[in-house]
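We treat protein structure as text, and this decision shapes the records that our systems exchange. The tokens are whole numbers drawn from a learned vocabulary of local backbone shapes. One such record is reproduced below, unchanged from the form in which we store it:
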Amino acid sequence: MKLESPMESSAAAEELMEMETKPLLTKVLSYPPAATASTSQRRRAKSSPATPPPSRQNSFSRDIGHAAKETYLVTSLSFTLLQYLGVGYRWITRLLALYWYAMLLMPGFLQVAYVYYFSSQVQRSIVYGDQPRNRLDLYLPKNTDGKKPVVVFVTGGAWIIGYKAWGSLLGLQLAERNIIVACIDYRNFPQGTISDMVEDASRGISYICNNIADYGGDPDRIYLMGQSAGAHISSCALLEQAIKESKKEEISWSVSQIKAYFGLSGGYNLFNLVDHFDSRGLYRSIFLSIMEGEESFHRFSPEVRVQEPGNKDAVSILPPITLFHGTADYSIPSDASKIFVDVLQRVGAQADLVLYDGKTHTDLFLQDPLRGGKDDLFDQLVTVIHADDKEALEQDAVAPPRRRLVPEILLKLAGNISPF
């Protein structure tokens, strides 16, 4: 599918938009290549050319152009989703519900969008690879003293409308606790299929592992996280890397560089999800196209692959894994996380499950963060990330509560009509 780019303020902006929207384009952009890593290698290779120190100054005209470009891209993704799901009664009602859901939460979205586009703490669209949409956003703390822990985040979006900006709320809030967040963009269907998405995620992780020190991050404190479809993609990338590493294959980043993995509201066994998604409107034919046919289910089902005797060495080097899920999640049932944790524990991996009673697919990722105040998921993430930093834990204990972004009545109404 070819999308026409909007008018930009400069030729450089046009070239960037063209790169993001033409799936067959293979133009190679100049970016710092990732250095080869071994299992014991935890820091950026000396031979990798240094990334220029990031500038935190963006011109107003460039920000306006960037906002227009990304608004166009998000609109295109929405029409792509509609094209593949059809315009039947079920999807018309769901799209209407989605529209009103977004309108009710708009007061919070607008506040987040303003900071995303105009804050000097957000470094947008850093190129990490040579494929379309190989870009990531960095959310940097105001405090620049010392090296910061890093969360590499892969957003969800049903493998069709995933986008790096979906992680902006999480990124901004974690940055307030002196944690750098890197939100990775990746090719979506039909621009790419699951193998492309996993490859993109792995490339983005590699870039962070090899270059985050240039942005003030600590390469020895990198955490990997994914939400919904992003949890599936990131878990596939992590396991695939562990398998390569266990077989002594050439790699550009090491599993040993990941201190922990967090999976939020994810699905990890495609065999168990295909019929569920079909009943929810992500029809079987589309799902099979995204996942490259049923013959690829095994390869892209981490729950299945970790049970293979030949992957025992790969399982042994996986980082600690924690899966979070709401018990009222109907988009991806919480059993998906329960079963995966049981399997991981049975094969010897370090894995934990955290269930949130009555929470839906979007409560944990959207409504609760927009509500502000105390948030169990956020507090648990920060506690794990700062576990070895006594000073950071002391600062967390006296940190002001997060600001409410949406009135409670709007959050409750949004929850009642949510199509997720």
